Amino acid sequence: MGRVTRDLGLFLISTKVPDGFIYRPSFISEAEEHELIGEIQKINLAPFKYYQFTGKRRTASFGWEYEFGTSDITPTRDLPAFLLPFRRRAGQLFNIDPNVLVQASIIEYSIGAPIGWHRDIPQFGNAIGISLGAPCRMRFRKCSRNRSKVGRDEILSIELEPRSIYCMSGAAREIWQHSIPPVKELRYSVVMRTLRVKPKLIKDRDGE
Question: pTM for the full model?
Answer without folding.
Answer: 0.86
